[in-house]
Specification:
By secondary structure, this protein is an alpha+beta fold. The chain folds into 2 domains: 260 residues, no CATH class; 140 residues, no CATH class. The protein is 40% helix and 14% strand. The strands form 4 sheets. Strands 1, 2, 4, 5 and 6 form a 5-stranded mixed β-sheet that branches. Strands 7-8-3-9 form a 4-stranded antiparallel β-sheet. Strands 10-11 form a two-stranded antiparallel ribbon. The longest helix is centred in the first third of the chain and has 21 residues. This is RNA-directed DNA polymerase from mobile element jockey. Keywords: Nucleotidyltransferase, RNA-directed DNA polymerase, Transferase. InterPro entries: DNA/RNA_pol_sf, RdDP_mobile_element, RT_dom.
Length: 436
């Protein structure tokens, strides 16, 4: 560190391409890259990262809208914030317009000298900047496929993939993203969403376009490329008929208008009903259950406690993904999950059809779906006051007050009948009914 030098042998990466599922493997973009770096290099990077984090915490410079690579923050927290903003618009009878930006090769295209300039502006010491300059420059990589390795190729831009310090350097590089007063930013690593609200949908789109005009200048200045055809615009509005509005444009290219969008793993729809998300989660859980059929099916000889463990550890998490976000969905959706769980616990104990589901749940000591959502939501939201982020501290509503609006934090107080009594229609036994 005293010599401000990062050894060249630590800057060599071996890249292993992993094919994406259901894609044309003849195209290079259909592979995910896994970079293998020197273990000694990662130890040194962790020392640099610790010092950089201490400096950033002291000056408190990273914007609150950035939830990626931050202590105690996750994609779940950003999703809760975004959905609460949208519900707040519904409460005020306002529509919310969201622009989801797709940055082309975010980590690979970072301009080295631009990053070093931003570090200088933050007041990072000259010695530390020299070390980072040595870390960023003169890097090379080799591709390995089936024990065959290519010749070295230089890396001219971007941060090293697989490096400990690269995520925080990326946060610094995009930290000065422009934001209008009428817009909200939601950033998680390289996933960016810009939201704005207005009573009239046309004005909502106009405000978004105004913010895009400022954003374009910033993108050009710092050599950040955007895939306009992969960006998306979604209008959240509590109306059955969504009014027409002009398309957004970025760098002269129209931004596709969509009616659902997968953001940070959750499918958002215009009314935040989460119906598509629930359907996909159920399909994933059923697929997982089928894959484990030889272990969890009725005929399986596996002990009951092991069957139950497989359900709790593998099958249930597949459908409860980010339940803190959509947990206050309609009772119909919750019942769909409960019906699936009822079938699973019946298979676990190999119970006949006439055994009450509540009895099985009590014997297995497994929570009904609504109780599971309440517990996980309470555990999640009770930790939020300990997080140093003012955007999460105070919701715009009191979850304890009953309301027709089902927002994320109200999932802790929802009353749900898990096992309703089914009233069966009584059939009179006449000779006709008996087939006599």
């Amino acid at each position: 560190m005293q010599n401000c030098y990062f050894p060249k042998c630590w800057k060599a990466a071996v890249v292993i391409p992993i094919p994406k599922p259901n894609s044309d493997l003849s195209l290079p973009q259909n592979y995910r890259r896994i970079s293998l770096l020197s273990c000694v290099s990662k130890v040194f990077e962790s020392v640099l990262l610790k010092r950089l984090n201490q400096f950033l915490d002291n000056i408190n410079i990273i914007i609150s809208e950035q939830f990626g690579f931050r202590k105690n923050l996750s994609a779940n927290h950003q999703l809760v914030r975004v959905t609460e903003l949208i519900h707040d618009g519904f409460e005020k009878s306002e529509s919310t317009g969201a622009l989801f930006l797709d940055v082309a090769k975010a980590f690979d295209k970072i301009w080295h000298y631009g990053l070093l300039l931003k570090l200088m502006r933050l007041g990072v010491s000259a010695q530390f900047i020299k070390i980072l300059r040595s870390f960023l420059t003169s890097r090379n990589f080799q591709v390995r496929v089936n024990h065959i390795i290519s010749s070295p190729r230089p890396i001219l831009s971007g941060c090293a993939e697989g490096s400990s310090i690269s995520p925080m350097l990326f946060n610094i590089y995009v930290n000065d993203i422009p934001k209008a007063n009428s817009c909200h930013l939601a950033i998680f690593a390289d996933d960016r969403a810009i939201l704005t609200q207005h009573a009239h949908p046309y004005a909502t789109i106009t405000q978004l376009q105004h913010n895009i005009s400022k954003l374009q200048l910033w993108l050009v200045d710092w050599k950040i490329e955007v895939n306009s055809n992969k960006c998306a615009c979604l209008l959240f509005i509590k109306k059955s008929l969504v009014p027409s509005h002009p398309n957004l444009q970025i760098f002269g290219q129209p931004v596709p208008r969509v009616y659902q969008y997968k953001y940070l793993g959750i499918i958002l729809d215009p009314e935040l009903s989460f119906n598509r998300q629930i359907s996909d989660a159920l399909a994933k859980a059923k697929y997982t259950s089928q894959k484990l059929a030889s272990l969890v099916a009725r005929w399986s000889t596996l002990p009951i406690k092991h069957k139950l463990l497989l359900y709790k550890a593998i099958i249930r998490p597949a459908m409860m993904y980010w339940s803190q976000v959509w947990g206050a969905t309609s009772t119909t959706n919750i019942r769909r999950f409960q019906i699936f769980q009822n079938k699973q616990v019946m298979h676990v104990v190999n119970a006949p059809w006439y055994v009450r589901r509540k009895v099985i749940h009590d014997d297995l000591k497994i929570d009904p779906i609504s109780d599971f959502i309440k517990k996980s939501s309470s555990k999640f939201f009770n930790k939020i006051p300990q997080i140093r982020n003012e955007l999460l501290q105070r919701p715009t509503y009191d979850p304890a007050i009953p309301s027709s609006r089902k927002r994320p934090r109200t999932a802790m107080n929802v009353i749900f009948d898990n096992f309703p009594t089914v009233k069966r229609r009584r059939i009179h036994t006449t000779p006709t009914n008996l087939g006599i």
